[in-house]
Design goal:
The complex is a heterodimer of chains A (338) and B (295).
Chain A: H1 21-29, H2 36-70, H3 91-98, H4 102-130, H5 138-145, H6 147-150, H7 153-163, H8 170-177, E1 193-195, E2 198-200, H9 202-229, H10 233-240, H11 245-273, H12 277-282, H13 292-301, H14 306-337
Helix pairs in contact in A: 2-14, 3-14, 4-9, 4-11, 9-11, 10-11, 11-14, 13-14
Chain B: H1 2-45, H2 48-53, H3 68-74, H4 84-115, H5 121-133, H6 136-149, H7 156-181, H8 184-192, H9 197-208, H10 210-226, H11 229-235, H12 244-252, H13 259-291
Helix pairs in contact in B: 1-13, 3-13, 4-7, 4-10, 5-7, 6-11, 7-10, 7-11, 8-9, 10-13, 12-13
Amino acid sequence: MTEGQAGAPVVERPAGRPPQGSGDGRRSGGRRRPSRAQRDARTGLALISPTVVLVVVMVVLPILWTVSLAFQRVRLLNLRSTGIFGDYSLDNFRSVLTSNGFVDGLVTTLAYSVGGTALAIGIGLTAALALRTPFRGRGLVRAALLLPYVAPVVAAAFVWTTMLNPQYGIVNELGTGLLGWDEPVAFFSSRSDELLGIPVPTALLSVIAFEAWRSFPFAFLFLTARLEAVPDTYEEAARLDGATPTQRFRHIVLPQLAPTIAVLAVLRFIWTFNNFDDIYLLTGGGAGTRVVSVRVFDYLTARGDIGAAAAQALVLAVILAVIVLVYLRVFSRAEEQA
Amino acid sequence: MSATTHSGGRGAAEQRVLAVVRPVVIALLLLAALFPFYYMVLLSFRPLQGVLQDPGALWVSPGEIDLGTYGDVLAPVSDGGQGFLSFIRNSMLVAVGTVLIALLVSIPGAYAVSRLEFFGRRRISALFLGVYFFPSILLAVPLFVFFTRIGLRGSLVGLLVVYVAQVVAVSIYMLRNYFDTIPVSLEDAAVIDGCSRLQVMRHVSLPLAAPAIVSNALFIFMIAWNEFLFALLFLVERRENWTVSLGLSQLAGSIEVPTTVLMAGSVILTLPIIVLFFLSERWLTGGLTAGAEKG
């Protein structure tokens, strides 16, 4: 399990036995005794089928069902009377797309995803570079930096809300006591505050900071693995030619990291865009942090409007798919030109 | 020549700045990463009154240490506690069950995808990768409806099935990568000795893949132990079935439970993960980059 290749898109490897070999085996084996290739094919199907059944029943069919639900008028209350062949209409999409706060939710989701992704990758890159040269205890430092990523989100969110609590949180205590803040900041419940006369979306920035804290280790891990694979000969040559550390970083290290950063950007963006847990736990979707996934949850549980929830989730998935496809296309074009 | 000396001077200056900045950056990163956990433990040891009077204290004086919070949070509700002991039992049941069933399904699957040529092998790999990237919030709607309808919502079994389905694709991906690194020649030798495929798998490949299987098991355990969204959707109305994550999140909203008691709950929720992480860090970092999270 090498770190460098891990996480990259799956590359098909040749199987233990090339498929062409099966023809000969069949002929020599005759009809009564199946060849080894045939037996392998049968065993393979038998071994993989439990997984396939599970994934189809628990993932693929439910997704198809979401599509069907999105076009029907289904509520939690009349759930038992709804069949597969209900009345299909676009009503859910119409009401979701024109509902109050849909556009706001989408903008919030985008700001949250872009901000969280950029910060996480920026901090992860800084950490990877800072820990590049070996020192005593580096392994332990690396492991410690991964903790925010592995810790349970519920515990992390609870500690953060307590730390940033305006009444008894330590951050506000230190801020008002030592840093001379005029009054405590309600980090997770204030929609906007003035900072040096400029209005800033406090709660949104706070959840972005939390997202960056939780996911920078992921970027750090990937970038560290990639950095270890960068040969130092080029850097050494550049150093002898008199290139400064920043020049070496800009012209030699960064270009080699660029593909990894691009992959990280896609992965983090997808996950942040769909993220529900963090915002639900930190703000409950209040104070200008109502992202689309929290809206889906509210439609589903508070309103019991399953059709609208399904439609909302589908719209979210489609928008995400479009953004990712556009990004991949632009990126691969830039790659070709480079 | 003068340009070289000039940039050489700049290089030396940058070098000196970096020598100062680097340790500072490392210290700040460590502080940011670790302080919340320190604060969590700190508050769990302090009495509530002390926290309210002096919220800025960065340590707890020995005389002030109060371990009663742990008793409060673990004790059953009937004894005036928060019932975390039963939440731990539920989380354990679901997480261990998920690990066992997921491995039972994914080890043969990964072996097949890695070693055996069968119809649709490539398409299946692509399908699994797609599943992995699928937003769980999109799955939440139909699964919520489905389990409500068949009456399994609220049961730990329903949650377990959902977890297994969510992790099995990633598990196969991680294990397959490992099987791919085991030379086929080892298995061929066993085949020549007359072993069947399943015997080869059991006696040759499985022992060789043991480290990968262990790290995979820990990885799945951590996903299942940490999971929140489906636990919330499925179990929220049944307090006796709450997992630790769900219990903490539900009680965090109420004013009646003191923050310090819930901090003890947070420590209880986090500690197993941190212990497992440090036990398996070497194995797991490879797995984390391969598997990442199911977000």
